[in-house]
Amino acid sequence: MNPILDIQHVTHSFGQHTALQDISFSVKQGEVVGLIGRSGAGKSTLLRCLCALERPQQGHILLDGVDLTTQPERQLVRIRRRIGLVFQHFNLLTSRTVAGNIALPLQIAGCPRKEQAARIAELLDLVGLKGFEKKYPSQLSGGQKQRVGIARALAANPTLLLCDEATSALDPESTNSILNLLADINRKLGLTIVLITHEMDVVRRFAQRILVLDHGRLVEDGTLLDFLRDGQNNRTLQTLLADIRPSLPTFLTGTLADTPQQGPHKTIIRLVLSGDSASAPLFSELSAQFGVQAALLQGGVTTVGEHLSGDMILSLKGDRTEQALSHLKMAAQNMEILGYVPSHS
Amino acid sequence: MSPLILKLILHSTWQTLEMVVASTALSVILGLPLALFMIATGPQGLYRLPFAARLMGMVVDAVRAVPFIILLVLLIPVTRFIAGTSLGTEAAIVPLSIAGIPYFARIAEMALREVDSGLVDAVRAMGGTRMTIIRSVLIAEALPGLVTGVTVTLITMVGASAMAGVIGAGGLGDLAIRYGYQRFNTTVMFGVVVVLIIMVSLMQVLGNSLARWLKH
Asked: Which of A13, A337, B75, B192 could make a disulfide contact with A18, Cβ separation 3.0–4.6 Å?
């Protein structure tokens, strides 16, 4: 199947400053892709190129086979109608009611007035705001405003939904409900979604694939599990992952040594598990097979996408720790020895 | 107060209202497109033409720089060309409007500039044409500010129309000068001031409530 969105060698700069450098990736129909990067990484510029507001200086952007970079402005106006955009600050018209805001893309697309009302009711039902037609944006909470923003973005049946920091201005509870709504929309409508954010926590929830942007370059393309498994030596990834990974408890950092001490000691390890290995009875295995006492210090098992994924810090104690470690190395996606602490602590 | 004086005041009030309403209406009808032109051709506008924007700004400022009493006299040939005469209430509408258009244009420009650029981007990204953006975003979102601008223009026109007596336009200002000042008729002077205060207060109250109602 042809990709719905195909970015080929996109380069864009503002004067001396190169905002995007040779970016290439493609997105399949129905895929949820998270585009992550720190501020200044080029996310906003890429977004503006993707929704045809900015024309990249080099490279091609193909949406459903149509090259956005070569279309005249008049055509771009039509193409933009097929891209839904959800904004960080909602960008709802304060002069219009909820229904009026959702109606705007329909009016732009020239949808007959009679069909508009039905479509608006249907969309409000989808985003969980039934009966809010006559309210004004000033009467809504942040989460509700974003729901209206999503309904508006979906109104004209877009082929692609772009979310620009859609949850960054929301409290954690609203963030959760908006992310669930987006996941729901992806499942129900099979809509392709590109999430642009600086928060790993947001893409972790439901992005099937994560693209990492750093200093205008696409530095990583993979799943969260790939990153947890192979990202040890990647500084950009580590800073982004730091928010969501368990970190060593502070009471241990002082006594942690790189080499095993004389006498009784514990080995502190970081373990990344996925799928079957994440649901296996790990602790009883260690105890039964190797007589090793394992204690969970930080982290645990969560769901990433549709799979179980474990990311945890353990302390192991016992005479056969070495064997236990080589067993874990085989069974786990990634095993890293963080250090050793004296046994009494 | 004698019925004669009352009749005089009523007649002058009607003349003032005629001048104020007509010139404000013309100022809005012609000043709003002017403001949109300055915003749209400006550096962040929809049709970037910085030179045109700067030129228009200069013309607007030039008209605003001339004191109204001088403009009134200066424009006599123009007034005669447009209104057919340079005297009377209807004729005064011409210089009042010419002063009012750039005045309202500047106020409207400020109101339009206040509109969040994110909204313009949002509608542009939706595939809205520039006309849609001007109508549904710029004007619609700036409407409370524009209404406040209309109120300010109305009240400024009340003040300016007092000077129109110079070209025989009548009105409350003219009445106050001729009867109240030149004939020492304090009753007329007092009556005119009271009517003006009531007129301006009413305009302000109505303008404010309309703007508040539009502000959702």
From this structure: A13
- A104, A136, A137 member nearest B126 (Cβ): A104
**Which tokens is A341 given?**
């602490």
> pLDDT tens-digit profile of B29-70?
999 999 999 999 988 888 889 899 999 999 999 999 999 999
ipTM for the whole complex: 0.83
Instruction: Evaluate whether the domain defined by A5-241 bears CATH number 3.30.300.70.
Output: no
Cβ-defined contact of A93 to B132 (cutoff 8 Å):
no
How many whole angstroms separate alpha carbon A298 and alpha carbon A192?
35
Is the CB of residue B126 less than 8 Å away from at least one CB of chain A? yes
By mean pLDDT, which of A11-20, A259-268, B13-22, B199-208 is the weakest? A259-268
Contact (CB, 8 A) for A314 and A273: no
Instruction: Domain A250-342: give its CATH superfamily.
Output: ACT domain (3.30.70.260)
Q: Edge to edge, what strands does the sheet with A192-197 contain?
A: A83-86, A160-164, A192-197, A32-36, A209-214, A217-222
Query: What is the value of pTM for the model shown?
Result: 0.82
Give the residues of chain A that fall short of pLDDT 70: 1, 305, 345
Spell out the alpha helix ranges (H) of B2-44: 3-41
Q: Using the beta-carbon criterion (under 8 Å), do B128 and A104 form an inter-chain contact?
A: yes
Alpha-carbon distance of A298 to A246, in angstroms, equals 6
